[in-house]
Amino acid sequence: MTAANKTLHDFTLQGLDGKPMPLSQFKGKVVLLVNTASECSYTPQYERLEELWLANREKGLVIVGVPSNDFGAQEPGSANEIASFCKLNYGVTFPLTEKLVVKGAAAHPLYQWATAKAGNAGRPKWNFHKFLFGRDGQFIDWFSSRALPKGPRLTAAVKEALAT
User: What Å distances lie between residue 131 and 18, 19, 65, 105, 139, CA to CA?
Assistant: First the structure.
């Protein structure tokens, strides 16, 4: 399959629990993919991501957190440490993956594909970069680290994606 024909659903990640997380399980759902870190000034976004998830999961939104140590080495923890931190500090219940590389030539194939879809301007430049995918697994848009999970631009994009 060529990159042009791929969708989000063609990729499988490993969950933070070590179990396979085929993204095909999210067919028919809108997915917000967010690279995360526990020691970043943007880390409080976990709280708003959880609120966005809880408010919209019954409508078909899935948030997938992707811990990454790529930016400022701000995700040094083990899988257990990350899971504990997210649950205890922010009550995170949305799916989290294993720690991944999300930038450059060593990036996970999903991130290479998503970055190609987003273009150079849409490549992850820091923690809490967001990619939005439609119910069909097609790329919709990207949002910088500064875009708040419950900010007007992201909220409008999620609402529109959920309506289709």
Answer: 23, 23, 11, 19, 8
Q: At what angle do helices 79-90 and 45-56 cross, to 10 degrees?
A: 80
How far apart CA 106 and CA 32 sit, in angstroms, is 22
pLDDT digit string, tens, across residues 105-125? 999 999 999 999 999 999 999
Task: Compute the distance between CA of residue 106 and CA of residue 39 in angstroms, rounded to an integer.
Answer: 22
| Residues β-bridged to residue 64 | 33
Query: Roughly how many angstroms between the first and final C-alpha of the chain, as a whole number?
Result: 26
Identify the CA nearest to 69 among candidates 36, 96, 97, 45: 36
Fold of 35-163: Glutaredoxin (3.40.30)
> Which residues participate in catalysis according to the annotation?
40
- Residue spans per domain, the chain: 35-163
Q: Which residues pair with 32 in a beta bridge?
A: 63, 132
Identify the residue whose tokens are 């708040």. Answer: 148
pTM surpassing 0.90?
A: yes
